Amino acid sequence: MTLEHWIRVNTRQMAPRSTALLKLIFSDPDLAGDEPVWLHELIRLMAPFGLDERATRTSVFRLTEQGCLQSRRHGRRASYEVAPSAVDGLRAAWRRLNAAPERHWDGDWTLLINAGGRIGAATYATLRKALANHGYCALAPNVLARPTDHETRGQDDLAELGEDAHMEIFKVSGRQVTGGRPPAEFGREAWDLSAARTDYERFLQQCAPLREALRSGHTPSPEQAFVIRVLVGLAWHQCRHNDPMLPLEFLPEDWPARSAYDLYRDLRRHTQVGAQRHVHSAPVVIPAMLARPMPELCAQAA
């Protein structure tokens, strides 16, 4: 298998959305990260995924309208960077994406409470579904809970979901939430892990041949390294999206997350230098005035 074949097949099968690609590029500190990027550079970076200038401009404008990005004008050109209001949520999502899977339960629980039902039924139903992917199960109509570990942060979970997630956060000590049942038994009953298992197994099948090719001496070009890194990141994001990220005590013994995580980290390491080289292969100095955080409203890109 050649690297170009893997890229071609997986680009076609994954059909990545431009907004997802842009979010990943701006959240990866080894790529754009928090730095401003010229619009014409974003257009160049999107081209290998089959996205033309119009599609990229539309997606950038949409993310700006949504408050994820902000634009700065410099003459007739525009640069884009993560909007200050979106920084916390994007960083929380990045920490979750890259968190090691082998975490132990500290015996406590994080509770999120819709106090007084102040969040409307429709909004709460949406939040409850989203928080299920963060490891929360429903204990009562307005109470969600997840077992905590040293990396669990209820603030991160809510920050990632945006301004509608106004819930009270409590910590509860002890094992009374499980009703005395073993954690693994409670885990089987309270969380559906089938989708996450399928995603991890698919990721291993999809990306293991790529690691073998890289280990056997296939050296990617900078553009190939960049495309591989982004495609692998999107596939890994799908795994984490469906994984409640439970502590080990709540998981089955044959849980495939560790093997998949090791593969993900290996592929990032193999592509880091080349991907960075591609992102910065046409450096354009952005004036310092554009790099400073500014509170004003985003200007529409040209």
From TrEMBL:
Q: Output the GO biological process annotations, alphabetical, semicolon-separated.
A: DNA-templated transcription
Pfam family membership, one: PaaX_C
- Domain Transcriptional repressor PaaX-like N-terminal as annotated: residue spans: 36-82
The organism sits in which domain of life? Bacteria
The Transcriptional repressor PaaX-like C-terminal domain is annotated at 191-280
Q: What is this protein called?
A: Transcriptional regulator, PaaX family protein
State the organism of origin.
Rugamonas brunnea
Q: What is the lineage of its organism?
A: Bacteria, Pseudomonadati, Pseudomonadota, Betaproteobacteria, Burkholderiales
